[in-house]
Backbone:
């Protein structure tokens, strides 16, 4: 079966300290919120929006297009999205989980009828990518995009609770990646993935998650089935989309020459300081993380110190205005 392919397509995301987790901006008391979640909840996802990825490694874009389907209430083309996600991933097979939500923001997708799956094009990755993007596709895709993406897996709690919290509060599905075992093969539509005790070999898979029941997470798999994934099973990565404009999350202009190692190092220090300086009940944490990308940019490229930024966060949270413009060079703002 399809398990014999090199991979189903998921490559586990690399650790990135710059990631914005939903929990960094969601607020609320964790235990109280999780305790109030219903035992069963699922988004109304149309069965006709399901796909079959065939022998391709495009599971990520099939899952991500599920987010678009729900958001725009129409079936979108994973084939179109995959064309661009492959440029982001730059992998010979499959993709990192995050690349697919990044694709939703940067490129979006057109309606399914403009670039559908067929028995011929899902025979291989080469066939799946062998088409020309035309103006009609681009025009539709420009109208079906997202404005931002965040990690939906656990920062404070476990992945199962974090994913449920995101779906329930945002009323939006997520994509998640996990180890797929050969014993999952043959699971019928409506069934539950069950791993056999002696099943040690696995590959990576990405799917859409639309809710949960008492057994676990409800997945829309890209082999034209909806299944339950037991809550005790491992989830590698989970990503969802947010309306950054509505959430007032601002993105800085990216510098021409970036040093990703510096950004990573500074992001770790900055996050540690925010958690140390502001208590869990202090809304200044949320204020800070709403400007997370601007803060990382400021300390990495604009000459600001960590102390400068702690003062900036405190002033913005308490006074409701910025102490100085962190998107301008420090030399121009602090004399």
Residues:
């Amino acid at each position: 079966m399809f398990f014999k392919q090199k991979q189903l397509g998921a490559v586990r995301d690399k650790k990135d300290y710059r990631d914005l987790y939903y929990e960094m901006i969601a607020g609320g008391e964790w235990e109280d919120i999780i305790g109030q979640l219903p035992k069963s909840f699922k988004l109304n996802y149309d069965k006709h929006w399901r796909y079959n990825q065939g022998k391709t490694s495009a599971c990520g874009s099939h899952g991500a297009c599920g987010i678009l389907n729900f958001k725009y209430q129409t079936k979108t083309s994973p084939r179109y999205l995959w064309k661009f996600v492959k440029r982001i991933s730059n992998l010979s097979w499959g993709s990192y989980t995050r690349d697919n939500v990044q694709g939703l923001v940067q490129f979006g997708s057109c309606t399914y009828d403009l670039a559908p799956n067929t028995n011929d094009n899902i025979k291989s990755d080469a066939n799946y990518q062998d088409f020309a993007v035309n103006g009609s596709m681009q025009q539709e895709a420009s109208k079906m995009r997202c404005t931002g993406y965040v990690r939906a897996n656990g920062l404070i709690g476990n992945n199962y609770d974090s994913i449920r919290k995101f779906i329930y509060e945002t009323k939006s599905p997520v994509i998640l990646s996990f180890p797929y075992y050969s014993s999952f093969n043959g699971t019928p539509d409506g069934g539950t993935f069950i791993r056999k005790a002696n099943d040690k070999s696995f590959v990576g898979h990405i799917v859409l998650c639309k809710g949960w029941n008492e057994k676990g997470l409800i997945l829309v798999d890209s082999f034209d089935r909806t299944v339950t994934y037991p809550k005790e099973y491992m989830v590698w990565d989970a990503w969802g989309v947010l309306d950054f404009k509505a959430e007032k999350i601002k993105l800085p202009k990216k510098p021409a020459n970036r040093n990703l190692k510096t950004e990573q190092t500074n992001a770790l220090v900055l996050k540690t300081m925010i958690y140390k300086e502001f208590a869990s009940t202090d809304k200044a944490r949320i204020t800070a993380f709403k400007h997370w990308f601007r803060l990382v940019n400021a300390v990495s490229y604009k000459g600001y110190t960590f102390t400068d930024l702690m003062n900036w966060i405190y002033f913005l949270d308490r006074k409701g205005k910025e102490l100085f413009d962190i998107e301008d060079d420090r030399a121009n703002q602090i004399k």
Observations:
- The beta strands are 10-11, 41-42, 95-96, 149-151, 174-181, 202-212, 216-221, 225-230, 237-241.
- The chain is about 40% helix and 15% strand.
